[in-house]
Every structure is written in C-alpha cells, then in structure tokens.
Predict the 3D structure of the following.
Amino acid sequence: MRASAPPLIGGLRLPAVRSLVWAALFLAPPVLGLLSLGVGRYPLPLAEVLTALGQGLGISESAPELASRVVLLIRLPRVLEALVAGAGLAIAGAALQGVFRNPLVGPQLIGVSSGAAFGGALALFLSAGLSTLLGATFLFGLLALVIVFLFSRVDGRAPVLMLVLSGVVVGAFFSALVSLVTYLADPNDTLPAIVYWLMGSFATASYPKLALLLAVTVPGVALLVALRFRINVLSLGDEEARALGIQVEPTRWLVLLAVTAITASGVAVAGIVGWVGLVVPHIARMLVGPDHKALLPASALAGAAYMVLVDDLARTATTQELPLGVLTALVGAPLFGLLLRRAQAKGWST
C-alpha cells in the first residue's frame, strides 16, 4: 500500500507550509529592523540607510552627515534594543506557559515585573546610574521571585496554583511600593522621569544600554533553550515529569530565574512593556505548535518582530511618541479577554 500524502494547506503540502513559516519568522526581524531605520520624523530612503550602515561598518563611502547620525546614533541602538527585548520577553512568556501548563500565564503573573519596576523606580528616585538601575531591577525582581517561592511552599513543594496566587499577591505589593515612590518623588524633577519610564519606551536607547541588555538577556535565553526538553516534560504535569526522571522543583526554579533575569533587563532599558510574554507565544504556538523545541525560537523571532512594529507605531502614530506599555496593552488586553472566553468554553481551570 502507498503511504498517504501529507495534507494540503492552501494548496501546499504541510512540510512546505512549515518551511514558509520558518522562512518568514527568520526574515521578519532583520527586514523589519532594517526598514525601521528609515522610519521616523526624519524619514530616510533605504539607499541612505544602507549607505549609513555601510559607513558604520567601514565598507562603503561616507553617507550624508545627518543621515549617518540619525541611523547610527539614534535609530540603530533603538531598533536593536527592541529586537533583543522583544525576543527575550516573548521566549520568557513561552517558557512560563509551559512550566505552569497554563496558556494564560505571563511574566507579570509571578510578580517579577512588579518587583523589577519597583527596583527601577527606586533607582530613578535616587538618581542612580544605568548600571545601578539594571542591578536594582534584577535585585528586586529576584526578591519578588524569592518571596513568591517562600509563600508558595506547601509540604516542601510549590504547587502551580500556589505559585500563581503568590505571584498575584507579591505583584500587588510591589505595585503599591511603586505608587509610594511616585508619590514621594519630586514633581519637578524625578517624578516625570519615573512616570515616563514606567509607561515604557525605547526613546533613551543607547549602545551602553544595549550592551547591558545583551549581557543579561542572551545567557537567560540560552538557558531556556537548553532546558527546552525539560520544559516539554514539565508541561505534561509534575507526576509525569518525575516518572521520566526530571527534578521538578529545581528545574522549575531554574526556568523562573532565567525569566527573572530576562524580564529585569527588559524593564531596566525600556520600563514596563507588558503583554508581550502573553500575546506572542500564542501567535508562535499557532504557527509552529506546542513543542518547545520549535516554540521557544519561534517565540523569540516573533517577539523581536512584534516589538519593532510596536515601537515603530509608537514613534510615528502621532506627533508625540506614544508609550509602549499603552500600545501593547491595547493589543494584549482584548486578546487576553478572548483567551479567557476560549478557556471557559473548553472548561479550563483558570
């Protein structure tokens, strides 16, 4: 008997569709990033963008001075930050959803974002430098994770439900501390900086910030990718994971530590940019399926492209730059509502 042919999707065989999906995922971030270098209040044609990049690399003739400054000093670090932060937040969300076996989980739900936000707000309140800002966001993000760990322990273990509930409580506590810092801040000096930072933006992007972002995000992402098989097993349930020889608690907290580092670095350079870790993994899951071997890299690529698009919209939609947190919430909140309705329809426990 002849084996049945692969199913057709839009007239194409399934392997061909998957190849096209992966080609689109790999091409989207660099193509969108390149096009974004010409977008803004001072639009530049692609030829001038390429010339300026070539000048920066020392492989082409000198570009017009203004175009070179705009591309190399202002837009390039901003686009690169958006690519790295978007990839990190998306892969962190995908890993959390696998570990918690819940597609409605994001970095905000375990309190890490709120803890990191308090650390950053405190650093700005004290007029600290960039390295102190990054250290404070990571420290308080990690502190939030430790408190969640302590609160969620039941008989030596941390059930998923207790982790989520503890994350909600800890997140609310640190959000209250952020409000306290903003209340105490000088309204003529530090308050505007704190409020603007909390709303999210890449407007202050720079190469030192990009270097710090890469130094933290890349190892965190590499760790999550290395744990992809264990995350797959954990997504089956704790008992199944133990039966397959996985140390559930250490693995889960190792994933959470990597997520904390990635989230804290993103908060340090861009403020609170929510919903990326919730929205993008769902898009990636629809494209490549639930296997984390494919889902994690797909989420990273889709997250990078998504963040660049949102940042382009933030700086071009109006005469004044819109906060990233507002735009990502406008997309993420309706989608989250749809997911809740879908969860109820399928009888999921939320």
Q: What stands out?
A: The two ends are 47 Å apart (CA to CA). Residues 85-337 form a domain with the ABC transporter involved in vitamin B12 uptake, BtuC fold (CATH 1.10.3470.10). The chain has a mean pLDDT of 85. The longest helix spans residues 65-100.
